Amino acid sequence: MLLNHHPGLQVRKLSIGTEGAPLLVIDNLVSDPERLVRKAARSHFVGQASMFPGIRAQAPLSYQRFLETTLNPLLKECFGLEPGRFVFPMCHFSLVTLPAEKLLFLQRIPHIDSLRSEGLATVHYLFHADWGGTAFYRHRRTGFEYIDEQRRKEYFDCLEQESRGSDVADGYIGEDTALFERVAKVEGVFNRMVVYRRNSLPSGSIDKARVPPADPVTGRLSINTFIDVVP
Q1: What share of the chain is helix, strand, coil (3-state, %, to 5)?
Q2: Which of 131, 144, 190, 197 has the fewest CB atoms within 10 Å, measured from its CB?
Q3: Contact yes or no for 133/185 (Cβ under 8 A)
Q4: Residue 168 has what pLDDT?
Q5: Are 197 and 121 contacting, i.e. CB atoms less than 8 angstroms apart?
Q6: DSSP result, 87-109
Q7: Residues of 212-228 as b/e, b for ≥16 C-beta within 10 angstroms?
Q8: What is the pLDDT of residue 50?
Q9: Terminus-to-terminus CA distance in the chain, angstroms?
Q10: How are strands ordered across the β-sheet holding 202-204?
Q11: CA-CA distance, 36 to 38, in Å (whole number)?
Q12: How does strand 10-16 pair with strand 21-27?
């Protein structure tokens, strides 16, 4: 499927918390986002072996090419990366469907997708209902807002200890908790995309009391990607 930029596309460069990791917000991304929703509705969604709390389906290859064209001109200024060829370890339609009471410990706290700051993640919101956006956090005990190889042992040792305590919030993380402080939040607006480093600490902003339906048309549909840039 052919994807084009929306004529009203808008780009904002923001930063996360006190450590200032870059955060890119792009509004009005594609010219016909409903077409992507219809494509998702015809796709086969399956459960995940990963920690993602829902189901996923492969996004079209043309979406990968579209992202490469869209983001390459922004890499240097926004992320300090040289433009290049994009490799996608992941590019999926995603639906959050897991009830809050069924979440494992690692699904109730912010996550990292990589220890490398060069890797990027994107979330493209494709829902109209109020299903929440994406928030970013600081781990209180260590003060970390991102996790790299140097911070890995200290951070995960702390998490191991904290997982056995009583301070872990029930359900999806929302605002501040005893373990994490929310330092940034992006609302989930239809046809908006957020781009951030994969070693930041994000979490979807999910209402604990409402489980989104497993329906691409009415549920919390997004396209999630991981991107590596090859010079």
Answers
A1: 20, 30, 45
A2: 190
A3: yes
A4: 80
A5: yes
A6: EEEEEEEEEE---GGG--GGGSS
A7: beeebeebbbbbbbbbb
A8: 81
A9: 27
A10: 180-186, 134-139, 202-204
A11: 5
A12: antiparallel
* Sign of the CA dihedral running 32, 61, 206, 28: negative
Give the separation between CA 120 and CA 23, rounded to whole angstroms.
10
The one-digit pLDDT tens for each residue of the chain (231 residues) are 889 999 999 999 999 999 999 999 999 999 999 999 999 999 999 997 788 999 999 999 999 999 999 999 999 999 999 999 999 999 999 999 999 999 999 999 999 999 988 999 999 999 999 999 999 999 999 999 999 999 999 999 999 999 988 778 889 998 899 999 999 999 999 999 999 999 999 999 999 888 899 999 999 999 999 999 998
Query: Cα(44)–Cα(141) distance, rounded to whole angstroms?
Result: 41
Q: Which helix (H) or strand (E) holds 10?
A: strand 10-16
What is the full DSSP assignment across 22-39?
A: EEEEEES-BS-HHHHHHH
- Look up residue 24 and give its two tokens: 């890119």
Type and span of the H or E element at 196 = strand 193-197
Tokens of 125: 């919101």
Amino acid at 200: S
| Cα 41 to Cα 44: distance, rounded to the nearest angstrom | 8
Fill in the DSSP letter of residue 164: T
| DSSP bridge pairs for 139 | 180
